[in-house]
Amino acid sequence: MSKELANLLYPNNKYTVEEIEKKYPPRKLKEGQYVTRFAPSPTGFLHLGHFFQSVIDKFIALRSGGIFYFRVEDTDKKREVEGADKYSYNKICEYGFVPDEGWTPSGDKGAYGPYRQSERQEIYKAYAKMLVEKGRAFPCFCDAPEGKEEVVENREQQLEETSTLMEHDPCRDLSIEEVKANLKAGKPWALRLKSMNKEGDKTTIHDLVRGERVIQANMKDAVLIKSDGIPPYPFAHPIDDHLMHTSIVVRGEEWFSSVALHNEIHEALGFEPMKYIHTAVICKPDEVTGNKRKFSKRKDPEFNIDYFYKQGYPRRATVEYVLNLANSNFEMWRVNNPKADIFEYPFTIDNMGSSSPMFDLVKLGDVCKNVVSRMSAKDVFSETKEWAEVYDPEFAKLLEKNENLAINALNIDRENERPRKDIMTYADVKPLYEYFFNEIFDKSKLLNFDEKDAKNTIKDFILNYLSVDASKLSKDEWFNAVKEVATKSGFCTDNKLYKQSPEKYAGNTADACGILRVALTGRSQTPDLYSIIRVLGEEEVKSRLKFVFENV
Predict the structure, then answer these.
(1) Predicted confidence (pLDDT) per residue in 500-529, tens digit
(2) Which of 97, 171, 222, 331 could serve as 58's disulfide partner, Cβ 3.0–4.6 Å?
(3) What is the CA radius of gyration of the chain?
């Protein structure tokens, strides 16, 4: 009956299983080289959990010298969002995770496609027919499944009566005549797995992080092919990952409870059990209680991976922070390898944890400051400009017009053993460095002196300093010149003692530099003042000092 039933249900299949297996031969990889895939459903934005998984996928493949590929799992047509596939692909590429093969917006790349599940229906039909022939699948002509309340009620009743959940479908034992009659009547049908398990049967979960676990085996006649001919994830995933020779499937822990079903489908198909990594759910502190809670698509804008770049967080810093969540020793590696490229990190599955990591924006900010401090001024400039072209176009134009000035300003206190860590996001560059650009700088800020600073002292200091030409002085020579101006202006109360021991009696020179700092930048705290003066140029320095002298 099984063969007759298979031919009745699938009379005109394009391929046989044997033909398909020959089309997808084993990959020519060495022992220990892993194949991973990022396979999002195109149902919306790329969220933090997906991104977390893509980081793990990429680094497992990269560190093993394996393959990282992209697959589109578009079997849920009701929830599909147009363009979401392209969005997810482009997004991971922007963060440096360019797939080695798979689906791309311009077409498939690789020999194991199609990489879009909706284009693989003939493949699924071949395996579906095989299962029917083996007596492991059957057609179900039942109406649409009942609602959630009825499902819960039926399960509670079954547990009360039998203490088990053997969800066997009423169509599993239809005769061939009954099937023919239903088909002739034009009744829609779905293909279901004929579960062979009984109460007490066990199956093993092969999870590379959580370890092997023995759990209750599946006892549900799950749907393999829906009435529209499209397979749900539990059937498509084993076939695709088998044919594409995926070594490890990385997915969220919400799938952990489904492994029993997936194991039975693997077994029915004759496939080896899949090795999984079920990633823990990333959590955050609740704003009200402070307790750990899951991210919410509705309440938490940072759950959308777009949030971080829109706010100006450098992509490489976001990757570093997520790697820190994924691998416990990443932070120490970065301390010991401050200048190493992120993709040199020796990611290992052994350093992954099973408990839910806590996402902390403050910690992300610290990582960003460290990352930006290690970047060259040219890189900070180009990446800030790239960000500003989308989120602050006028500032992007200003940067382009003043490229040399901007790079020189960003280079102050940068390339040394202890670089400044004042920039957290690209959005910080404009407010932090605005005083270098006359087009956007409010000159009235140059008059923001502390109330304790007497106007006549400020004017006297500026008048004396106008004779100094910093462009012709080294840093030490310039500082000595400031000391002399400070003495002339009354900052040092005993000129005789000052001349005898300038270092000892020039304590108020710092106050003089403070006035100079405000008069040139409008700020009481800035990077190295001498460097600022050199970047502004002598002409602009004199112009600003004269403005202050006239308006203070």
Answers:
(1) 555 554 446 677 888 899 999 999 999 999
(2) 97
(3) 33
